Amino acid sequence: MRRVNPIVLAAVGIGILILVLAILLATREDRSNDDRLTDEQAAGTDAASPETRCASQATYDRVKNELFRQAAQLRKSDAAAFDRLSAHASVRMERPLMRSQDAGTGSVRCAGRLSLDLPPGLSVVGGRRSLSADIDYVLQAAADGSGDVVMLEGADPIIVPLATLARTAQPPAAPQAAPAPNEEPSVAPPPETAQRPSFDCRYARTRGEIAVCQNADLAALDRQMAGQYYQAVAAADPRQRGMLTVTRDSFIRFRDNCPSDACIAETYRGRMREIRDIMSGDWRPRR
After folding, report:
1. Is residue 53 domain-shared with residue 163, that is, in the same domain?
2. How many CB atoms neighbour CB 246 within 10 A?
3. Is residue 254, in this structure, part of any structural domain at all?
4. Domain check: are 58 and 138 in the same one?
5. DSSP string spanning 157-190?
6. Burial class of residue 230 (count of CB atoms within 10 Å of its CB; 0-12, 13-18, 19+)
7. What pTM, to 2 d.p., does this model score?
8. How far apart are CA 157 and CA 249, in angstroms?
9. Of the candidate ranges 68-77, 168-177, 180-189, 271-280, the one whose mean pLDDT is the lowest
10. Same domain, 106 and 152
């Protein structure tokens, strides 16, 4: 039997040892890399921080969409139209602040001063095109992983007038020439805004809404009541705001069940008295 050269045997052993060490080092490096976040993962961690969630543009857009959704719900119509208009409105948040975080649910409570600018050609009751309010907004991660769900608090000073969204008046027509002698002067029709209610008649659905859109006197009462309601909500404390909201639904039911324009007119007058009594503390619920 031929003997193996000791030098060759030692070289083979060293080679095997080097190969084993190389494999061990490579495996260790791979495990080390597995424990490190990639740049994208690190960015995602920053994006999920509570402070960033409160102050991100994605959050502001969700707040804006929720404002329009609740305004359409308050108006009880036009949900699709409000959804489309939301994409063309712009929103700003001043002094965004994270108030608290719930580690159990992952929700974050934020606060800030929100300003909403309406798309060109649209305004709310009173002709305003920009709305502002100090609000709280709570962010809760959606169960399907699609992002945060937004819940708003203190946003009624924006939502209530936003529900009266309508097209702005057309520019006034050029002045007409003076009538000739002995010619009966023509009476110019009232401006379009003077005939419209606080809501867009293109989307009128209920009997009460249709009647208001067809009667200039009822439209004037609607504008007057809407303006009074918005001012009341803006000045109300939480208890008064709750009463204004509950009684609003009753007012709409009464109006839409009225059999005549006279009944609708009296319902509007009663609603304005009701708003005044709620704000003065004299209102008592009906028994």
Report:
1. yes
2. 11
3. yes
4. yes
5. HHHHHHTT-EEPPPPPPPPPPPPPTTPPPPPPPP
6. buried
7. 0.54
8. 18
9. 180-189
10. yes
Check: CB of residue 202 under 8 Å from CB of residue 248.
Answer: no
Is 202 in contact with 213 (CB distance < 8 Å)?
Answer: no
Do 247 and 155 belong to one domain?
A: no
> Is 41 contained in some domain?
no
SS3 12: helix
Q: Mark whether 214 and 274 lie in a shared domain.
A: yes
157 compared with 287, residue with greater pLDDT: 157
- Closest C-alpha among 211, 227, 196, 224 to residue 260: 211
The share of the chain scoring above pLDDT 70, in percent, equals: 72
Strand residue runs (E) in the chain:
90-101, 108-117, 122-123, 130-141, 148-153, 166-167
Containing structural domain, residue 62: 48-167
**Total of domains in the chain:** 2
Reported as a single tens digit per residue, the pLDDT across 147-170 is 788 998 888 888 888 887 777 654
Which phi and psi (to 5°) does residue 189 adopt?
Answer: -65, 150
How far is residue 195's CA from residue 198's CA, in Å, rounded to a whole number?
10
